[in-house]
Write a structure and sequence with these properties.
TIM Barrel, Helix Hairpins, elongated, 2-isopropylmalate synthase activity, leucine biosynthesis, 2-isopropylmalate synthase, Aldolase_TIM, acyltransferase
Length: 556
């Protein structure tokens, strides 16, 4: 049961003493180095860890996306991990521009096994860690600061010495003061400096210092303060790469990583779609595409986001949520009427722009940049408005309904959605459209053939109409085609209509172009009736539109 006074149990996280902090006014202008830990941190969090086939499939995906640093596993964890990693090296599966990275605890036997798994690699990163925060020191290890620092120092010496035994490999090192975000900053700095003293990094061969939020315990701005404090106080700043490894316990793993970059970090570790222990790691996809929407090329290619999703879901046996940023099935979909109307107008405005700048309401990124289309951007249910219905018809059938006709048909769709209590797909909407405007099924008046004669201002319509099981010949005179059709309907069939508005447009382009015509009519008793016709010939489409309205009158 939740406490009425949680301060009896929980303490607020302490602030960082950082006068004149600079990160709040910083702007991210270039991508970081990216490290995928899907195959290590992500894999260890799975109910059923990946087998060798799935790990290889995931590895190939990361290469295709463009990740250049990949934590391929924890080789000392067991034979499966060791064999997979050594197999990548043996098979020549690692591209020359990609760094494989492996993780090890700070123990002599485990470090030796780790180096052995990479024997023959052209280059590699060995990542060693030890936890430094008070909870781990006091509860888990029951060690003081000096003893914890000695672990880090001994691990650094082992990295140095094991690397010397394999001089043909281009070795790089990463050290993590694990649980950094809940540790004292001065002690984290002390451990990092001790490791640097052993490994002697240079600007040409920097040491990666990974500063993890192993458990996210504070707001993202505090993590940014911690990162800026370390960047200010570390010696030889030009000889270290500050790396971020955020978790999502408070739901702000992405925000913490972004603020950490603003605070001066150089590198981001995480997983595709945020897989990882507990609530997950930083989501590399979201961070990268957030940059992309700010005009920055992130260096990672998600042009086929659905292929990435399919591979990740297969390998992890976990679904990507429908609302996951950029990737979920519904993230580019609007059901709300006002949202749909704004999106529809945004797309229309986009077509008239003189530049390529993307500016569509509710869509921070063009779905086509990620390999998605626009068909699912607007979907229809009981919350939808006329704009959404019109959008579906435009995308599915190429019809651009006039505004008042949109309103007329939206009432039909609203009634159907209320009746069915479910989302309506394009087929549902088209069936309702055909039925409402009498384009199929029982029709009182169906055009068989027609002829138009006369001259400008005096036109004669002569046509054959299927009516009541037979054919009727009708004719009428008017100042144009539509008025002559209306005269024929009135004089020969007793259907009295007056056209209040007419519009038309092409459907498609090139040699397969068709036409759509719309009429808004008034009856003698003041009712408004709409009609639509489509044909490869615009004149025939106009006649069909008038007959559509006449059929609605007959069915009333």
């Amino acid at each position: 049961m939740m406490l009425t006074d949680p301060s009896q149990k929980y303490r607020p996280f302490p602030q960082v003493d950082l006068p004149n902090r600079q990160w709040p006014s910083a702007v991210i202008t270039s991508p970081p180095r990216w490290l995928s830990t899907d195959m290590r941190d992500g894999n260890q969090s799975l109910i059923d860890p990946m087998n060798a086939e799935k790990k290889r499939r995931f590895f190939d995906l990361l290469i295709k996306v463009g990740v250049k640093e990949i934590e391929v596993g924890f080789p000392s964890a067991g034979a499966t991990e060791f064999d997979f990693i050594s197999g990548l090296v043996r098979d020549g599966a690692i591209p020359d521009d990609v760094f494989p990275q492996v993780l090890t605890q700070a123990r002599e036997d485990l470090i030796a096994t780790t180096f052995e798994s990479l024997r023959g690699a052209k280059k590699a990163i060995v990542h060693v860690y030890n936890a430094v925060s008070p909870a781990w020191r006091n509860i888990v290890f029951q060690m003081d600061r000096a003893q914890i620092k000695d672990i880090a120092i001994n691990a650094a010496k082992l990295l140095r010495d094991n690397a010397a035994k394999q001089p043909d490999t281009d070795w790089h090192f990463e050290y993590s003061p694990e649980t950094f975000s809940t540790a004292e900053l001065d002690f984290s700095l002390e451990c990092c400096e001790a490791v640097m003293e052993i490994l002697q990094p240079t600007p040409e061969r920097p040491l990666i210092l990974n500063l993890p939020a192993t458990v996210e315990a504070a707001t993202a701005n505090i993590y940014a303060d911690q990162i800026e404090w370390m960047c200010r106080n570390i010696s030889k700043r030009d000889s270290v790469v500050i790396s971020l490894h955020t978790h999502n316990d408070r739901g702000t793993g992405v925000a913490a990583a972004e603020l950490g970059l603003m605070a001066g970090a150089d590198r981001v570790e995480g997983c595709l779609f945020g897989n990882g222990e507990r609530t997950g790691n930083c989501d590399l996809v979201t961070v990268a595409l957030n940059m992309y929407t700010q005009g920055i090329n992130p260096g990672l290619d998600f042009s086929d986001i659905d292929e990435v999703i399919q591979t990740v879901e297969y390998c992890n046996q976990l679904p990507v949520h429908q609302r996951h940023p950029y990737a979920g099935e519904l993230v580019f979909t609007a059901f709300s009427g006002s949202h749909q109307d704004a999106i529809k107008k945004g797309f229309a405005a986009q077509e008239t722009r003189n530049d390529q700048i993307w500016d569509v309401p509710y869509l921070p990124i063009d779905p086509k940049d990620l390999g998605r289309d626009y068909e699912a951007v607007i979907r229809v249910n009981s919350q939808s408005g006329k704009g959404g219905v019109a959008w579906v018809l435009q995308q599915d059938k190429g019809l651009k309904l006039p505004k008042r006709m949109q309103a007329d048909f939206s009432r039909v769709v609203q009634g159907l959605a209320d009746q069915t209590s479910r989302e309506l797909n394009a087929s549902d909407i088209w069936t309702a459209f055909e039925d409402h405007y009498r384009l199929s099924g029982d029709q009182a008046y169906r055009l068989i053939d027609y002829n138009e004669t006369g001259h400008a201002g005096d036109r004669i319509f002569t046509g054959k109409i299927a009516h009541k099981g037979g054919e009727r010949s009708i004719s009428g005179r008017g100042n144009g085609l539509i008025s002559s059709v209306l005269a024929a309907l009135r004089d020969d069939l007793g259907v009295d209509l007056e056209v209040a508005d007419y519009s038309e447009h092409a459907i498609g382009a090139g040699t397969d172009v068709a036409a759509a015509a719309y009429v808004e009519c008034r009856t003698p008793d003041g009712r408004t009736i709409f009609g639509i016709g489509t044909d490869t010939d615009i004149a025939t489409a106009s006649v069909q539109a008038v007959l559509s309205a006449a059929n609605s009158v007959a069915a009333a």
